[in-house]
């Protein structure tokens, strides 16, 4: 969550990418 916030701050577009990555991690 803290990483997501930092990325969102940098670029909102990255937010979607991070969200996907987090979902993959949860599935794994």
UniProtKB/TrEMBL annotation:
Protein name: Uncharacterized protein
Organism of derivation: Nymphaea colorata (pocket water lily)
